């Protein structure tokens, strides 16, 4: 059902039409029967009147009549005594006495044959179409107002239903005006009984949601502070210790190096966890602006170039300038995570290719690597938090926390982008590589959709 | 005159409107665009006017039996289209999307042909009264009443079908399509009997006392089930044959396809 209003309008109008017209048909049948009886009585009366009239037996009399009734008076010996001018000179209504139907003078007639006490035979005929015409007239009188009334009824139903749906429209308005992060209760002045459960449960839901978001936000803020501080302190102390030991003995202890690595991993994990929390679409206060994704990719690649250079990896950027409506900070994080992932899993002197291209209604970012790739079965799971392909026993022996793709997923969701994973064009048989395709709606489409949405909302509610 | 035109127009409008409701409900069910309806109706109405205007020339072909034969051919064509629509509907079951354009065009042609056939009869009937101004008013109001009742029943029938539970909707629509299609076979046979292509026979039974064809209920049964108060043995045979053939082909398609499988996808967002 597209619209309650149109459904009610059509269903109600159909019902009204159906009921009224069927009633009119029954009325037609009833008035037809009534007309039959009325006309028959009239014929009978005329016949009796004629039977009671004295007639001149010497010469037949022709009486002027209107076109609708005809009569003949025959004597016992079969001589015509009197007739109307529209009746033929031959006997009409031969056969047994009473009512019958016959054709003459180009019409169909209902004929009544009556034999008087003196043996005179009287035949009175009336045109059949008269009766139909009367019944037609009666039913037309009742149908025409209905026909004229239908558009009026339609208009009234339209207005009344619109009025009845007013509070629903208010509710929709209220919900539409709500921004994603606004979880204040709906303020609907005196909602009707039918909407009350909806408003109540929505408000209860919003309240629970608000509480849960608040808890999460507080937790991530607290966790950020609580975790970062001791890690930073440990890092400083470890560095100091390393310097001290290096100065004294001239060489760095192996276990201290491991400690430093562990601290770095811990620090990375904490940062990634905070990023993940921050990037949840419900929490993140995104500031959308037109951004050239190609240029952004170039900057991010330039920033992280030393990491790739250290492992002698070859990184290239293809494509063209492509604008999307996006949040700069989030997009940088997305690119960093994708590049980081590609760099980690691509072996030394491997290749990584980044490509940004404008397609019809979309901007497509592709990051391809020549690493081990991800099997089809695992592709769905890699977006889960802390999931790592093959666990820590992965052949690449790359450490990581398993949050990178979850963050990417959140940022994609924030931008209404679609992520697809597939085998990389840079891959070989042993290492099929991974191709990550992120499909952003183009700037024009996003702008158009926002405009259309507003227009459609307006239209649906008007 | 009024009653005659009510019955005639109601008969024609109801037949087209019920078919339209079933197909429209299926369009809704499959999530297709309902814009096709305008193409079909416009084509059908223009076609019926053209056919009605050329009815004299058409009648003269085939030894004066051109009209009956052409109408019978159209009925069989609609039967074939409904059969194809039924099979395609089953193939589109469970969210599968196959031959959607073909399905859409079958619907367009079925509705356009039905509108053309029924519309031309109304058109020819109306044209006969255009110079009899004394009768014209009752003929016109009779036609309006007939059309009003026909369209109202069609609209309510549509909402009834749309309101059915999702999993039963397809089955109900297929049963209805089969019944309507079998009725088309019966009517086509009667037309061929009128054209003397099939021998005239005495009716097998007479149920006009039980349910008159001229009553509203009789008209509804005529449009939906192909009800005929006095059918000949050939007509009954054609009805049963049409019914069984379609029922067999549809159930064969239904069970061959099995249960709809879920397609896997690697897409996330």
TrEMBL record, chain A:
It is an enzyme of class 2 (transferase). SMART domains: HATPase_c, HisKA. It is found in: Membrane. Keywords: ATP-binding, Kinase, Membrane, Nucleotide-binding, Phosphoprotein, Transferase, Transmembrane, Transmembrane helix, Two-component regulatory system. Its EC number is 2.7.13.3. Residues 222-444 form the Histidine kinase domain. GO terms for molecular function: ATP binding. It catalyses: ATP + protein L-histidine = ADP + protein N-phospho-L-histidine. It is a multi-pass membrane protein. The chain crosses the membrane at residues 138-161. Residues 162-214 form the HAMP domain. The keyword Nucleotide-binding applies. PROSITE patterns: HAMP, HIS_KIN. The keyword Cell membrane does not apply. This is histidine kinase. It comes from Microbulbifer bruguierae.
Automatic annotation (TrEMBL), chain B:
It holds the Pfam family FTR1. InterPro entries: FTR1/Fip1/EfeU. Belongs to the oxidase-dependent Fe transporter (OFeT) (TC 9.A.10.1) family. It comes from the Bacteria. It is a multi-pass membrane protein. This is FTR1 family protein. The chain crosses the membrane at residues 6-24, 36-57, 69-90, 102-127, 139-161, 170-189, 234-255. Keywords: Membrane, Transmembrane, Transmembrane helix. It comes from Microbulbifer bruguierae. It is found in: Membrane.
